[in-house]
Structure formats: structure tokens, C-alpha cells
What we know:
The chain is an alpha/beta fold. The protein has one domain (3-203): Class I glutamine amidotransferase (GATase) domain (Rossmann fold), CATH 3.40.50. Helices cover 23% and strands 30% of the residues. The protein has helices spanning 13-22, 49-58, 62-70, 80-85, 192-203; strands spanning 3-7, 26-30, 41-44, 75-78, 86-90, 102-107, 117-122, 135-140, 144-148, 153-157, 170-175, 178-181. A seven-stranded mixed beta sheet has the order 2-1-3-4-12-11-10. The chain has a three-stranded mixed beta sheet with strand order 5-6-9. The radius of gyration is 15 Å and the shape is globular. Bound molecules: glutamine. Residues 46-49, 79-80, 83, 108-109, 140-141 line the site of glutamine.
Amino acid sequence: PTRIGVLAVQGDVREHVHALECLRVQAITVRRPEELDELDGIVIPGGESTVMDKLVRAFGLQGPLQDRITAGMPAYGSCAGMIMLADRVTDATADQQTLGGMDITVRRNAFGRQVDSFEADLSVPAIRDGVADPLRAVFIRAPWVEDVGSEVEVLASVPSSVQGDAAGKVVMARQGPLLVTSFHPEVTGDLRVHEYFVDLVRGA
Length: 204
Ligand code: GLN
């Protein structure tokens, strides 16, 4: 069976485990470096990237995770998880580190105070029926992707119907086996983003 880990040091782990189990994938919570060995891919959930980073380092997971990602293990980062997979972060705290892997610059808490949390319908051609049936995206103190490298494929942006400077910002992207979203697909019951990631893991 396909085995996908969910990094379980902090954040909304259960929701991702549930989404993966709905797709009949074996979901494994990961807190120790040895637990990475048996994985075909990993999900890094939303939460708080500064705390997640500290715990990843405290649990001795930073190096082993970076090694697996460098070796090509597929990884999907949502929100704080997207920050963790970014090579560069704007508005990071002074001692904040990331795992990196994806050639993107991410701005933390980018959508600002007035729109702390919001929802938007995204057209996502890469997912099943993703144009005819837009994806309801839930953003919670979300980052956006400020800048992408040449190997990065943009999968979704904030629609122009959203007010302010959020419109047009990149909120879903992929670089080879690495996938990131600013938003939280695990809270809506729509499994299409997880399904896309599972397909990516199976194809890797
Ligand atoms: N603002 C959080 C951070 O900087 C991310 C929020 C989330 O994951 N919902 O890590």
C-alpha cells in the first residue's frame, strides 16, 4: 500500500490523516526520524511555522527530513507546511529556519489583519474538474507565494474578485514532487488536493 506520513509535531494533523484515509492510503504520523524510512511521501500540515520549525529541530527531524526531500521524496505542505518547504521566507522570525526544497519565496501572514481568515473559489486546472468545479479554499493567517523559480509550476492564484493586493497572488504551486498550498483543503471535505498529491506520490 502507499504510505504517506503526516508530520505530527504541531498543527492540524488529524484532518490530514483523515483525508488520506478517505483516499485509502495508509497514513502514518511522524515524530521520530526512524519513522521517515517507511514513507512514500509526507504531508506537512498547517499550524504555526515558527513553532513547527523549533519542534522539528528539537526532535532531530530537520536533517533527516531535508535528506529525504533532497533524495526526491514527495512532500505536500499546507499553509505553515508551505512555509516549511520554501527556500526563502519573508517576515520570518529572527531564528526561524525552514526545511526548504522548493525554489519559492513565501510571505508569512501575507493577507493582513483585516482578512485574517477568508475563503475563495479557486480555478485549479491541475485537479480533477478543477475548472468546472472550482476549489473552495480556506485561508487562515495564510502565507502567499511572492516569487517562484523557473522550475516551479503555478497551479492556482487568488481570483481578481478578491479585494486588495491579494488578487493574483500564487497560492498553489508545484516543483517536481513538491506541492504547496497557502490554504487548508483538509477542512472542507473536498479531497481533490490530497488526491492530486497521492497521484504524485504514486507516480514518483
Ligand atoms: N501564520 C502561520 C505561520 O506563520 C501559518 C498559519 C496556518 O498554517 N494556518 O506559520
